Amino acid sequence: MSLDELNCEPPLGSLLGRxxxxxxxxxxxxxxxxxxxxxxxxxxxxxxxxPSAPQGAAGQELVEPAVTSSLSKPxxxxxxxxxxxxxxxxxxxxxxxGKLRPAYLDAITFxxxxxxxxxxxxxxxxxxxxxxxxxxxxxxxxxxQVKLAVRVVVTNRQTVDGxxxxxxxxxxxxxxxxxxxVEYQGPGKFFLQFDPSDGYVxxxxxxxxKQHVVTLQTIVPLERVGQERRLAMDWPRATQSQLRVTVxxxxx
Length: 252
Known about the structure:
Low-confidence stretches: 1-10, 65-72
Structural class: alpha+beta
Helix content: 10-25%
Mean pLDDT: 75
CATH topology of the domain at 130-246: Immunoglobulin-like
Largest sheet: 6 strands, mixed
Distance between the termini: 181 Å
Number of helices: 4
Number of strands: 13
Strand content: 25-35%
């Protein structure tokens, strides 16, 4: 029995076998093209879903908080860079006890601020290390010189016992008579030094707040000016100064 008698279509392979080779290839290409077009939507739907945002412990989506700080914002492209000033201005000023405390500029007036700055700039005067209470010279003139006994009273004004105190006595033209021409009376230590610029210098140590007495036996040459003789000395500045000289010759 033939296919026509069974009233059925011949299989695709039988049909292709009857076609020439060129027509057969064209039919195959045509079938493959339409098969790919039919499968394309199915392949696109089989792609995996993109990963979702991380979920929290309760299944809520974790959202990263937005940074609102002005420092994290980049400057606008092509625009000027904005410089922000940190407020308020803080200055440190001394209180009544001398300790530095933060002071806001808007909390005090400008005049008060200038006054406090001026007080900081003023130097603080330090108390003197000593006071020269008395410089007294007593003697007798004879020939070309005068013999003088010099008595010096010094008070040590240091606040702590330890450092040495330098006391310039001047009196640079005087000559010590003998090796033991220097006598010291006081609660501390003492020595005498000669300095080309300050003359005799008395160094004291100890006896804070107390008086120290130094006695010098000296000879001072007289200066001749024409027919006259003159006593010229460089005196130190003292609270009290005194000079007593006995003159046997009227031209002195």
